[in-house]
Every structure is written in C-alpha cells, then in structure tokens.
Specification:
globular; Serine Threonine Protein Phosphatase 5, Tetratricopeptide repeat; about 375 residues; mainly alpha
Amino acid sequence: MPVELDESYGVIYERAIAAMARRDTDQAVQLLWRIINRLIKLRPATLQRREVLERTLRSAWNTLAQLLRRGRRYDEAIQACHAVANHLSGTRAPERMVASLRIEQGEVEEGLEQLRQIAEETPTLAAWTDLGSEYMALDRYREAEACYKTARQLAESNEAAAFINIALFRTYQAMGRLDDALSTWGMATVLGPDLAVHVFEVYSWLIERGELERAKRYLQREQNSARRMLYQGLIEWKSGHPAEARSLWQRVVQLDPRHEDVDEVAWMEAALRLNEPGRVLTFEENAFGDLTLVTEGQGTLVGIAYAAAGKLEGAKHWLDQVQGELQRAWPPADKIEARYRALLEQVVSDKDTVQALRSYFEED
C-alpha cells in the first residue's frame, strides 16, 4: 500500500485537534489511530531516515496517549504505546509512558521500578525527570530530589539545566526548604533568563509563607503592573496597612482589563478584594463567551464573584466548569487550588455560601 504524502498526515492531525477542541473524543481517537496505523507499516529505519514522518508519528502517538489517559482509557493508551515502541528512536518514551500509566492505575511500585530500570539502562535527562515527576506526584520529595539532581548532571544545555532547576525549586517548595528553593530559582534564571518572567511563583509563595520582606525583593522584578500592584496590596494588607492595600487595589481596577498588557486575573482579584464583585460579573458577560478559552484562575474568580454577589447557583456553575477542566487536564486534579479557597473565605461574607462551596477547593 502506498504511503500518504507527508502533508496529508498534517491535515488528518489538524482534524483530530479540531475534534478535541469540540470534545469529540471518539472522532479524535479514530483520526489519530489512522495516522499511527499507516505510519507503523513503514520499517523503523525508513522512519528514521524520513524525520518528518517520525515526528508526525511521535506527535500523533503522544496526543492519542494523553487523550486516552485523560479519559482513564488506560488499556487503549498502553496499546498505543506498544504499537509505536519499536518505531520511535530516542529515549524510550513509549515505555516510560507505559510505566507512568501503571502507576496511575495503582501499580505504583511496579511502575516506579520500571521507570528506574529504564533510567538506569538508558540514562537520559528525560528518563530521570519522568521518574522524579512521578515521585513528586506521590509526595515522595526526597526521592524526587535525588532523581532531579541526577537529571541535572545529564543536561546538555543551559536551557535543559534551567528546566531541571525549576523542578528542584518546586520540590524544595513542597518540602518547605526556603533557602534551597530560592537558590535553585536563582540558578534557573541565570541559566535561562527568560524564566524570570515567572517570578510570580516565587513572591506569591513567599507571601503565603509570611516572608514579606523577601517577597518584596522578588516582587520588584514583576514586569506586569497589575499583578505587581495586586501583590503589593497583599503585602500591605498582611502588614496591617489596609488603607494602603485598598489604594493599590483601586489603582488596579482603574486599568482596562481588556488591554493586552493588563493581567485579567489580577484585575479580577483586586475587584473582589475591594468587595466589588459586580465589576467581575460585568466583565464576564462581555469577555467570556467561549468557556473553553477560560483559564482556571479566570473561571474560579468568576465563580467567587457570583458567590460574593449572593448567587450560589452561578458560583456552582462556574466552579463545576473549572473542576471539570482540571479533571480532564494532565496531570489531572480533582480540586481547585487552596489559595482560591482562602480568597473565597475572605471576600464572601455569607458563611453558608462559603460552606456550600468549600468542597470544590483543596485544603491547605
């Protein structure tokens, strides 16, 4: 059977992505399998010579496996991994995904042992990083740290080393090792200067920990003015200066949230902290026509705005949407981040409403 032209695979792949966007999972699965089944008819050596075809196979497989995984269709996802395992060159990615799927199915130690065996037999940054990530998901932080440190030694570029330092930063965050976390963040931004734009991860964490003076130093590096003023206000609030905090939040809400330079989430949170949920609800009516494009933060803040306005059913509608998206994402999450629950408790005065919505959020 003749092989399709390279361009036609791209068309099929685009159709699969479009099906995923409209949540037609069965159609997307069918189209992705169509690409895979045709390309695995080629010999592995042929695929390696024709890099465009191998990249197409890799993309189709990875998209299919992750789609099936989000749907908890583990046997089909493993089947897809086995189908391509001998046709993709490199770092044994299909085998590593099979091990990860086993962990998710409950075969935790077996899957970890399989991943460790792959990492030791084929020591690559990707293999050790995958193993570290699995340990992180299991809250086994010391084992995750060891894996990430091994991965860092295998980094072949500053960009790769920066990526691993970010993983270590988040590990140390989870362990509460403040100085180690800040040190690895610093190394990451030296190796990958572009990462400095994500300094939000550092100062927001420091504020939550009550490390306000340290947070101020990192907050000065925040380039987005709305986000910077929101968190300057939080520091003032936590420092016992409510008037200064409200003044800063007023400056945020005076910005136009439709402007591309204004962080919408920061604007919405500032409005809620000023007890002005109506601003958020008006913005929602005009800005969020396509719910599939709404982020976790945006959707959660709209839900909290409905709660603050005394509209419990509207709040549940939005929080249901957010929770559903989190469960369909990878890695999946069952609940919304705890920091949003803290905001709910601060801005919603009706205790019964707060209690009715607590189950949507993680506990501290």
